[in-house]
Specification:
Mean pLDDT: 89
Structural class: mainly alpha
Strand order of the largest sheet: 1-2
Radius of gyration: 18 Å
Order of helices and strands: HHHEEHHH
Shape: elongated
Low-confidence stretches: none
Largest sheet: 2 strands, antiparallel
Length: 144
Amino acid sequence: MKISSRLDYAISCIIRVANKYKSKKPVSISYVSEKEKLEYDYAEQLLVLMKKAGLLKSIRGPVGGYILARPPEKITVKDVAIAIEGKILELICFRKKGRRKKCVHLGDCRVRNLWLKLGKEIESFLARYTIKGLLFLRKREKSW
């Protein structure tokens, strides 16, 4: 099982924005990209995806940037994962890419229920972790 770098970086980016939540100051893309050591365009793509998902709001102007669309305790890692990846676990049965239009075992799959259960477990696990909780852990690990 692989966790994409996009998801990992997106979580780090939203934590940067969440760090300024109480001050209500927008966080610029350049600040996020510099602190997270990401290319500006890449950080922008991640922030835009999270904005489209309703996790962030953008503020225009010379002191503009991004702010959280809701409190950090109301945004979960699951929310970020869905914003960035779409589905948490994409089963082979439903993939659109590849040589086959559908899985050869679609009619009598012996393991589909296993993967469906795993997907629900992963979603449940990610839903338990909020951005506020991750921010708290990050601050404990090292000072910003």
